[in-house]
Amino acid sequence: MSVIDKVKNAGIVGAGGAGFPTYVKLNSKPDTYICNAAECEPLLYTDYYVIKNQITDIIKGLKIAMETTGAKNGFFAIKKKRSKLFPLIEEEIKRQKADNIKLFQLGDYYPAGDEQSLVYDVTGRIVPQKGIPIDVGVVVNNALTLAQIANAVENNVPVYQRYVSVVGEVENPFVAIVNVGTPFKALIEHAKPKEDTVLIEGGVMMGKVKTPEDVLTKTTGALVFLNKNNPAVREKTASFDSVTRFSKAACCQCTECTVLCPRHNLGHDIEPHMIMRTLNYGLDSTSHIAQAAYLCCQCGVCSMFACPFGLSPKRVYAHFRQKLKDYDIPPKEHRADPFNEAKKIPTKRLMARLSILHLDIEPEFIGEFEYSGDYIIPLTQHIGAPSIPVVEEGDKVSKGEPISKCEEKSLCVPVHSPVNGIVKKVNNNFVIIGS
Predict the structure, then answer these.
(1) pLDDT, position 83
(2) NADH-ubiquinone oxidoreductase 51kDa subunit FMN-binding domain spans which residues (predicted)?
């Protein structure tokens, strides 16, 4: 079986949060492959512990990915603030004789882990505004994804668990290896959130508000608890009607949102202040201004750092993207803003703006998270077509056994059982397994 088939059958997707099936990236022909270990969302220590515990697998996975795609140059991109991990990384690169892999040090800014910003920082190449990194000869994978590649190829281990940070306004912040399908309420019981907190899955900036009844998936990198009055929470929970009313009352077209927009500073045709003008004054929603919604990476710099009034171009872009049916942004020759470096947002300044500096502590790593209840396993945990269940109620399943399959030639990966157990319920959306 080929490496690509092994990776697909193992159900590997982008562990950084996007969930794009990894086998597709391995079927490309880049000259450069980047391990994304930036972990630029505030408060998170997920990649930190993945590197600390699985550096051998990460480098193996990066070597496998480079050999499979033919990439000649590899980079391990990580923030300078993680310098105590550098000897570990460099020693492993040397031990595995991976001379074509170099450690690349990133500044402590946000959003350092944004794929397009990362490609520019590491290679100086600008991903076209209608494109993806492979268009400039680059492929990017998260550190955990690369470790999963090594486990799949060398040990035939599929993805049924992952590292997760549980941090923020909690009594017991921790990082653990957690089985897919674990209800958030089990993690909440261990973390002991403080009163009046809101649960965010994924990160302070780009994460989404969730409930204790939601479950962990392959893309759940973190659960963050913030006070209900935190500005990041208010930005995520405000109704769109209130976003609109506040914008019409307060937006002064100062352009700060555009000045600090990471994609604008890479030369893309996106100007957040103009989408606010479109919203406020009823300009043509089919114009190129509105179509720039497809260029927005939803990083939140505009809404949670740049705007002096806390307005949310990010939410407005998301609104227009749902409404748009056509995408006709012309290609262009990109030139990065000469002041791009100076416009990067220092992470500590961002945390100070969001009143979360006091939460920036290293959580304890507790190993594999113990849970003995029912696992609710979504059949779609990736970008693309849903997988199809192959088990029925009453079936006995083993840890790592496939419980779904993909239609031929569809963009899809299967899902696997995280435990030895009995199937309790099956439908087109999820499978429940009792351990």
Answers:
(1) 96
(2) 7-150
